[in-house]
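Kindly review both lines to help learners:
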Amino acid sequence: MAALGWLTPRRRSATARSVLAGEAAAEAARKSSQQFEVLEAPDGTAPPAEPEFPVLGDDRAAAFFDLDNTVMQGAAIFHFGRGLYKRKFFQRRELARFAWQQTWFRLAGVEDPEHMQDVRESALSIVKGHRVSELMSIGEEIYDEYMADRIWPGTRALAQAHLDAGQKVWLVTAAPVETATIIARRLGLTGALGTVAESVEGVYTGKLVGEPLHGPAKAEAVRALASAEGLDLTRCAAYSDSHNDIPMLSLVGHPYAINPDTKLRKHAREREWRLRDYRTGRKAAKVGIPAAAGVGALAGGTAAAVALHRRRR
């Protein structure tokens, strides 16, 4: 399920591509949310720190949560890739290349167009020709194997507080919408906005609809969903760890910085946004690694790089 790829020709402006990706994500999220069965709240969840928020019964408010290192430790796409490798979807050399590309991007924090195009093509090539239903079924197994134990209890409690107040809660992520939908359903959330991969008659084509749901595209997705759902964004909340999500956080009346990277922490303090940090010792913030990399993605990517180096030797 190709989430980090984008093969659309550069005939559209960046804004147009973001709008297209956002609208596609919003449409997919609304459809998938109708199939969800709401799970019971985990025992011992803490109430929100501010007793006046979320407002009980305010059905024009909703909450939007980034996924990687906000709701879950590490990157969902990396954990999904581990599961696909285990099932022999690709070879060790491809795993090493893909993991190293992800680690390089997260550590560098720079979106070099040529490098990012290579990353996208690698991700898309893995699932091209596979059926959507096949990847959904495998995704359920991968969640149990690699993701279930990586959910931040504190963030889950925040999401549950919104649900308990009668509000809808959505994941908003660059991960494939199918992966994000599985995670949202397992957590009892309303649904998910994610990168939409093109499929024809239930088979992935190796292309995306628009671009990855990243940065400004997330804001466009939230805006489109809010319009369709009749939400008042000034009464909504958004949660993220990354400065890349400042456009999304700035849309709502209640922005939260969760496990924030250095740039987001500074931005949040300047604007008096609420902060929450669930990382032990705030190690990620101290070493300056972008929070979105996640412990799992960084460790896995490094191990893959070492394996690649040994193979070359």
